Amino acid sequence: MKNHDLHITNSLTRKKEVFQPIKPPFVGLYVCGPTVYGDAHLGHARPAVTFDLVFRYLKHLGYKVRYVRNITDVGHLENDADDGEDKVAKKARLEQLEPMEVVQYYTDRYHHDMEKLNILKPSIEPRASGHIIEQIEMARAILKAGYAYEVNGSVYFDVARYNMDYKYGKLSGRVVEEMVAGNRDLEGQDEKRHPADFALWKKASPTHIMRWPSPWGEGFPGWHLECSAMGAKYLGTTFDIHGGGMDLLFPHHECEIAQSNAANGKDAVRYWMHNNMITINGQKMGKSLGNFITLREFFEGSHKSLHQAYDPMTIRFFILQAHYRSTLDFSNEALQAAEKGLQRLLQAMETLERIKASKTSSVDVSLLEKKCYEALNDDFNAPVAIAHLFDSVRTINSVKDKKESLSSDHLESLRNTFKTFVTDIFGLSGEISKQGEESGQIISGLMDLLLELRQEARKQKDWSTSDKIRDALNGLNINVKDGAEGSSWSISGKN
RNA sequence: GGUCUCGUGGCCGAGUGGCUAGGCGGAGGUCUGCAAAACCUUUUACAGCGGUUCGAAUCCGCUCGAGACCUCCA
User: Fold this and answer.
1) Which of A91, A269, A274, A442 has the least CB density, counted as fewest CB within 10 Å?
2) Alpha-carbon distance A241 to A67, whole Å?
3) A247, A34 in Cβ contact below 8 A?
4) Nucleotide nearest to A277 (CA to C1')
5) Residues of chain A with CATH 3.40.50.620
6) How far apart are CA A69 and CA A54, in angstroms?
7) Rg for chain A (alpha carbons), in Å?
8) Residue A79: is its pLDDT beyond 70?
């Protein structure tokens, strides 16, 4: 285990707290995954990248992390009214598919997008529909404890009753008494005793497709219950970190807290982490607003708002350049800036492999590693760590230009630090390495040959031949750069 | 209406009492057969008003503006 002084902003206290796992070296991390009834959009990439960073960094520090990210495939209703339709079931009805076909289709596509973004797979990826029994058991426990009631085959959480023994609303700062007045009128809430009550189990109407037997008749679980049930099953009744988007803070996470306390008599989560939203024209990118752009559309450039296609790594870097608790505003300009910046960073890493050590160093690079750790220990401040790395990029390029020098110790230290942070922790990788060992080797071999031929032409001042090679490669999005030490090349972004 | 967050230079974004983050863009220069890249210099900041302080972008108050949640949303 590395020595560290990791601080995490806990949404529950709204303060930065020292991170102390319950049972080191183990860490339990639960993150709310997607409801699989549509393609993932840019907004979905935010928690994925954020908690991928958390996962990677905790592992890097030496923790044994069990990372659970669920797939919601049942119980997520269009709205809170009794006639609210299940999101998955609705999609299935519209497309005339079996609900599980919808689930499988979008789960596969989600995985594909996540892989492109170089998101590590979670340790466990449980589905809500695979844990009906656990959810029924939890609902029973809550009923038995007296914090829920049954009406017509549905089970509702009794918020008012719960609030007498615990404090409902401590995460979102809501007060139960005040929630009645502010609540909008929703039809079909007759069964609930209090507007703030929420379903643990819903009776299935005769036409409802997704249904399971339960002590209360055929039905399906409420949305909030799955996370509580699956978190407890795989991470224990108390675990370290629970993450998700800020928009889930209320009611979803508030309900989770209540369910866990009601069922187990204690809080399930030590540290609540919430990533902020991605905005577009200053407004939240979201499904209901219809202003979202899917990740596939970004990768292909196939959305009318996009001026070009964006590499998944550009998206990843774009997200890492902002702190996870800040909103991040999308625009083509901002993404293009991220694309250029990432190229500069990755190019410097390649340069780092090529430059040769001197006897002495003219610059001090020993502090870089320390500064990067300090940044990440401060609530995973990736943008600050990246800024430090960019400072070293300038140094690296100056060494390449023979304006500065590095000793072999310093050079080695820089290489290690860049690999650790850029590759391992930030999960950023260049195009070439992703193409597989074999084809990558072939390409670099071919490029060496081409550049050698071009160099010979240049020696003989045969500019037409040398420019022809360069222009043709340019046409393939390969940039040729002539330096003092010969020429180098890189693959540029797609246009 | 309630709860909360935010307003930083052309753009994206760190910072949260004194030491002008960083990236992208613009301008000038060095290098180069040309180009690209790189390097150097440079440009425009902390919404407004008041207060606390030796000192505020940073703390407090007010005003204006934007957003999130209160229904599903990452």
Assistant:
1) A442
2) 10
3) no
4) B74
5) 7-275
6) 13
7) 26
8) no
**Confidence at residue A83, expressed as pLDDT on a 0 to 100 scale:** 56
* Structure confidence by residue, pLDDT tens digits, A350-375: 999 889 899 998 888 889 999 999 99
How far does the CA of A175 sit from the C1' of B47, in Å?
A: 33
- The contacts of residue A430 (CB under 8 Å, 6+ apart) are A313, A346, A349, A350
Size of chain A, expressed as the number of residues it contains: 495
Nucleotide with the nearest C1' to A400 CA: B38
Distance A332 CA to B10 C1' (A): 14
Structure tokens at A163: 């609030």
Block residue for tokens 């592992």: A59
Nucleotide nearest to A254 (CA to C1'): B69
Q: What is the pLDDT of residues A161-191, one digit of tens each?
A: 999 999 999 999 888 877 754 444 444 456 8
A73 CA to B27 C1' distance (Å): 55
Looking at the DSSP bridge assignments, the partners of residue A155 are A150, A201
Write the CB contacts of A359 (distance below 8 Å, at least 6 apart in sequence): A407
Instruction: Report DSSP state, residue A364.
Output: -
Instruction: Reply yes or no: is the peptide bond before residue A25 cis, omega within 30 of 0.
Output: yes
Range(s) within chain A of domains with CATH label 1.10.730: 280-429
A137: amino acid identity, one letter: E
Asked if the ipTM is above 0.90, the reply is yes
CA of A305 to C1' of B28 (A): 35
Distances from the Cα of A184 to the Cα of A187, A188, A476, angstroms: 10, 12, 57
Q: How far is the CA of A288 from the C1' of B62 (A)?
A: 36
- Where would I find the H helices in A378-407? 382-400
Mention the CATH class of domain A280-429: mainly alpha
CATH topology assigned to domain A7-275: Rossmann fold (3.40.50)
**Nucleotides in chain B near protein beta carbons (<7 Å):** 1-5, 10-15, 21-25, 31-40, 66-74
Phi, psi angle pair for A13, to nearest 5°: -105, -10
